[in-house]
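Q: What structure does this chain adopt?
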Amino acid sequence: EQIKNQLYGKKNRGDTVVSTLSTKLQSTAYYALGERRGAILVIEPSTGKIRAMVSKPDFNPNTMDAEWEWLINDENSSNLLNRVTNGAYPPGSTFKIVTALDYYREHGSMNGYTYVCQGSVTREDHTIHCYNDSVHGEEDMYTAFARSCNCSFADLGIDLGGASLQKTALSMLFNKKLPFQTYRKSTFDLGKSYGRPLLMQTAIGQGNTLVSPAHMALLTCAIANHGVIMEPSLIESIQSDSGETIKVMQPEEYKRILSEDEAAVLDEMMQGVVNNGTAAALSGRGYTAAGKTGSAEFDENGSSHSWFIGYSNVESPDLAVAIIVENGGTGSEAAVPIAASIFDAYYFS
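A:
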């Protein structure tokens, strides 16, 4: 056929790539983020299929030739940066899944943990505050996680120690390669000599820790998929120019990073965040959900990025999301409403 086309001077048409992206979910995520800077990744946990990927500020590929000089020469422009895979942000309280996992691995259970939160905790003249200095009172592990109690998790960090926390972080792919074509490694770094202040900050997702939304999406998928991360994919199938399906991409397992028991415990804790905690706006919407909010401080004034990681339909998860809104405040303020828009679009429109 190609030889025939060549003889008649006709152009040979190539194959068609069918994307995994959902037009509905992509559009919903794009408009939910609006004019704000940030990133959104939506994945099917059981298959690894990417259903939506949004990074803002963005660019228009149709006018790229005309805007190219501006895009590459404007020092204040980061439009060409894919924040989903190459962004580097403090994880804030979303990192508490790692701290909680470390506690579970050290003690074999979440039962028996208690802490009395008084709104702040001080060690070596360094003070950690809960949001708005909220006094949470007596907590077990599940209520501390649901309320995102900084004091409890800072105290946990000291109890666990840097070596243990680092070991667990490395097992969760920090400082490790990720299954993407291009990406920025997430970093966990306590340095050679650290004191309690840095350990406290690290345990609540601050300190020197940096993470990409793509990485947090993979960790969320692992929890939703019984501990297994599937290979992320943007290609559904390949078709010939006549419409014949040449190849259908099959889901592939990338790596198990959690045991089934560990995934089940974290799943229960993340359900508590929606049912009784900081992501309560996702409860009672006609579907079940689980997740973790985060407020990641990034300057001396206490300004914070808004995080949410989570998934819908907890019995058999359909979608996992990782959302960050730069300078968006708390996770419940900016990121959770975006997650609600995405889940609502999937189930009701």
